[in-house]
From TrEMBL:
<keyword id="KW-0456">Lyase</keyword>
<dbReference type="Pfam" id="PF00218">
    <property type="entry name" value="IGPS"/>
</dbReference>
<keyword id="KW-0210">Decarboxylase</keyword>
<protein>
    <recommendedName>
        <fullName>indole-3-glycerol-phosphate synthase</fullName>
        <ecNumber>4.1.1.48</ecNumber>
    </recommendedName>
</protein>
<dbReference type="GO" id="GO:0004425">
    <property type="term" value="F:indole-3-glycerol-phosphate synthase activity"/>
</dbReference>
<feature type="domain" description="Indole-3-glycerol phosphate synthase">
    <location>
        <begin position="3"/>
        <end position="126"/>
    </location>
</feature>
<keyword id="KW-0028">Amino-acid biosynthesis</keyword>
<comment type="pathway">
    <text>Amino-acid biosynthesis; L-tryptophan biosynthesis; L-tryptophan from chorismate: step 4/5.</text>
</comment>
<dbReference type="InterPro" id="IPR045186">
    <property type="entry name" value="Indole-3-glycerol_P_synth"/>
</dbReference>
<keyword id="KW-0822">Tryptophan biosynthesis</keyword>
<dbReference type="InterPro" id="IPR001468">
    <property type="entry name" value="Indole-3-GlycerolPSynthase_CS"/>
</dbReference>
<keyword id="KW-0057">Aromatic amino acid biosynthesis</keyword>
<dbReference type="InterPro" id="IPR011060">
    <property type="entry name" value="RibuloseP-bd_barrel"/>
</dbReference>
<dbReference type="InterPro" id="IPR013798">
    <property type="entry name" value="Indole-3-glycerol_P_synth_dom"/>
</dbReference>
<dbReference type="GO" id="GO:0004640">
    <property type="term" value="F:phosphoribosylanthranilate isomerase activity"/>
</dbReference>
<dbReference type="GO" id="GO:0000162">
    <property type="term" value="P:L-tryptophan biosynthetic process"/>
</dbReference>
<dbReference type="InterPro" id="IPR013785">
    <property type="entry name" value="Aldolase_TIM"/>
</dbReference>
Length: 127
């Protein structure tokens, strides 16, 4: 449940603290490249990014195009203190609420995939 999720980790604040601020991406595959990492270990990748000085993490959860998983996000968040963005194709308010239940600190809204009304609605739910 979203109401049971731990407090957010301040994604925007983390970006403002570092110059330059890097959002490091945890991604197993992509439509153009196929599998990017054969030995994909989200916990290890997240820890390495944190040690290297990343300000935040972005975790792909889309299954169909990126071989992502909600569990990757949960794992990455559990092994670091960094804020975590859920990167997926957000098209409904339910997904925003689900993201909070997964303990995502932020979501990505892709304007090119959304109508103006959808963008406003999803933004309002996310805030």
């Amino acid at each position: 449940h979203a109401k049971d999720a731990s407090s957010t980790r301040g994604f925007a604040q983390a970006l403002q603290k570092k110059t330059p601020a890097v959002i490091a991406e945890i991604k197993k595959a992509s439509p153009s490249q196929g599998v990017i990492r054969e030995n994909f270990n989200p916990a290890e990748i997240a820890s390495q990014y944190e040690k290297a000085g990343a300000a935040c993490l972005s975790v792909l959860t889309d299954i169909d195009f990126f071989q992502g998983s909600d569990q990757y996000l949960k794992t990455a968040r559990s092994v670091t203190k960094l804020p975590v963005l859920r990167k997926d194709f957000m098209v409904s308010p339910y997904q925003i609420i689900e993201s909070r239940a997964l303990e995502a600190d932020c979501v990505l809204l892709i304007a090119a995939c959304l109508s103006d009304d959808q963008m406003q609605e999803l933004s309002a739910v996310a805030i």
